[in-house]
Specification:
heterodimer, A: 114 residues, globular, B: 6-stranded mixed beta sheet, 4-stranded antiparallel beta sheet
């Protein structure tokens, strides 16, 4: 069974540009969550999608958006990039959204904004 | 507010010895899940072990066991027979009803040969 796949693995962008990150969950999983990890803030929740609907959203500006497709693949978009957006972005896949459901992570996309 | 606390920024352990990584949590929700993840320098978060709030027994997965003390709200990870490959960041996380997963700040474990 294939794991969670995130693409690309590394990205370098310039301030003001926009970026799209992709996450393919484990086959059969319908819940996808996104997290931002930085040395200063640790792991912070961005949003969660289940069956193409956003269920939860973290405390991030509107420049951060996401969506989920009918095949459960998810994308997140960051517009008007700022230097502070440099981080490791992790995607987690779950079969369900309840508290007793394990979440499996991808290898992450390391975004550098210059 | 729900909160996860890992009080050990860094830990050292000798190869082949056991080590305990601490995690305390705070929630008023009766139903929650507790998780431990390992993050090597490559960045991937590797799922290690899960404990449900209603589980009567402590969870075990190979060399990993979770010392769950519900009244004290602690969920410590015990790694037995440490290996050099266990050197990594370890994160404790909690997931509760209808909400996202919250993570602690992490503990960097270094296994010495």
């Amino acid at each position: 069974k294939a794991g969670v796949t995130q693409t690309p693995r590394y990205l370098i962008k310039t301030r003001g540009q926009q970026v799209t990150l992709s996450c393919s969950p484990i086959s059969g999983h319908r819940s996808v969550s996104w997290y931002q990890q930085t040395p200063g803030q640790g792991l912070q929740f961005l949003f969660e999608y289940f069956s193409e609907t956003q269920r939860n959203k973290g405390n991030f500006p509107g420049r951060f958006s996401g969506r989920q497709f009918s095949n459960s693949r998810s994308e997140m978009n960051v517009s008007t990039l700022e230097l502070g957006d440099s981080a490791l972005y992790l995607c987690a896949s779950s079969s369900w959204w309840r508290e007793n459901t394990e979440a499996f992570f991808g290898q992450g996309t390391r975004l550098t904004v210059v | 507010a729900q909160k996860i606390t890992q009080t050990q920024p860094g830990m050292f352990v000798q190869e082949k010895e056991a080590v305990t990584l601490d995690c305390t949590y705070d929630t008023s929700d009766p139903s929650y899940g507790l998780f431990w993840y390992k993050q090597p320098s490559s960045g991937e978060m590797i799922f290690l072990i899960y404990q449900g709030s209603y589980d009567q027994q402590n969870a075990t997965e190979g060399r990993y066991s979770l010392n769950f003390q519900k009244a004290r709200k602690s969920a410590n990870l015990v790694i037995s027979a440490s290996q050099l490959g266990d050197s990594a960041m370890y994160f404790c996380a909690m997931r509760y009803n209808n909400n996202d997963m919250r993570f602690g700040a992490g503990t960097r474990l270094t296994v010495k040969p």
